[in-house]
Amino acid sequence: MNTPEYIPSITERLQQKIAERLKQKGVKPTSIRELVLKVLLSNQNPTSLAELEAQLETIDKSTLFRTLNLFEKHHLVHAFEDGSGSLKYEACPNPYDCLLEDRHIHFYCTCCKQTLCIPSALIPLVEMPKGFVTEEVNYTVKGLCPQCSKA
Questions:
Q1: Any residues with CB less than 8 A from the CB of 55 and at least 6 apart, and which?
Q2: Please, which of 27, 34, 85, 144 could form a disulfide with 22 given CB 3.0 to 4.6 Å?
């Protein structure tokens, strides 16, 4: 009698993709790293360390900080300062590389204090003088988001 072929659930497939993404970037998959990356990938907006800490109550702040630094070093996430006084972290959209050309503008609402991604607005590339090497670009526009500008 034939046994039915095992079909992984959506959750298991997502877990496999996350583990594979970590491996592709040279990061050993651990349960904490997989969980942090899963949360960052599922968040709609860039997330601060404090917000991640609230979402991941079982992970202490120092472990979370070390994980984010490791992810940033291996180009799994990028961090930027949005003017709120804390770094925001965002999973790189491209699973293979986090290129400067792929970076988009962020919008910080001065009313509701929320940082939003504007993926349709790419950061313009700036021609630097000879000898300068661009490693990072941060482009944050500040103002009122659509909800706050209605009020």
A1: 39, 47
A2: 27
